[in-house]
Amino acid sequence: MVASPPYRTMRSVEQTRGPASQAAAIAVVVGAFALSFGVICADAGLGLPMTVALSTLVFAGSAQLAAVGVVADGGTGAAAVFGGLLLGARNLAFGVALAPVLRGGVVRRMLAAHLVIDESAALATAAPDAASARRAFWVGGLCVFGPWNAGTAAGWLMTGAIDVEALGLDAAIPGAFVALLAPRLTDASARAAALAGAALALTLTPFAPPGVPILLAAAGALAGLVVGARRARAPA
User: Fold this and answer.
1) pLDDT band at residue 5, thresholds of 50, 70 and 90?
2) Cβ(54)–Cβ(68) under 8 Å?
3) 85 partner at 20 to 30 Å CA-CA among 6, 53, 58, 156?
């Protein structure tokens, strides 16, 4: 039976409401974390126009923090760019995973590419079908873009009035990702991958350059594959 237009509209609203509420919660956290990024940029000697341009044109929090951290430590521009690219490398995997659901013309795909971030990818990949994934991606990306840029500018302007560590803003993003990850740990293979990735990141953090532990933590997926293969071979 073909659904009537009102039913399709109601179903579309219901499918969008879940990602929208999740994206709104993430946006609040991202906005708070953006305040700390603005403060860090000001402390590193970056002007407001450059700080805002970083958030608008790069729009990748971890890559931005890595680049600014290198500059603050006296590193070269080339080193800052390399650090940002290293952390941004994971977006290649996101792009490959999301490409089937983000179709359209050149302009639309370029805009979508700019919104490929951890949050939009997480919401899209958690959706039950392609249409829901497409809506979740756009809702997530756009809901994060505004608060990230507004928070960056506000943080720069309020430098000296914000104590990032005292307010716990430096822990906002990791906490948000734990909240996103938890509902997906529904089977043994997913839990094995998450635990192995966390163990790799924690072990490498004291020794590896910034950004490298996060990338290498992706190898934790191998543990999930091993557990999944063993369960598949196990007798019913």
Assistant:
1) very low
2) yes
3) 156
Q: Tell me the pLDDT band of 55, cut-offs 50, 70 and 90.
A: very high
Cβ proximity of 33 and 169 under 8 Å = yes
Question: What is the spatial distance between Cα 106 and Cα 173, in angstroms, rounded to a whole number?
Answer: 31
- CA dist 105 and 28 (Å) reads 31
**What is the spatial distance between Cα 50 and Cα 56, in angstroms, rounded to a whole number?**
10
pLDDT of 3: 41
| Tokens at 99, concatenated | 């490409």
pLDDT at 49 (0 to 100): 94
C-alpha 20/C-alpha 83 separation (Å) is 32
Kindly report each contact of residues 209-215 with a partner whose C-beta sits within 8 Å and lies 24 or more positions away, as own/partner: 209/83, 210/66, 210/69, 210/83, 211/62, 211/66, 211/83, 211/86, 211/87, 212/86, 214/62, 214/87, 214/90, 215/86, 215/87, 215/89, 215/90
Looking at residue 177, its pLDDT comes to 61
d(Cα 76, Cα 67) in Å, to the nearest integer? 10
pTM over 0.70: no
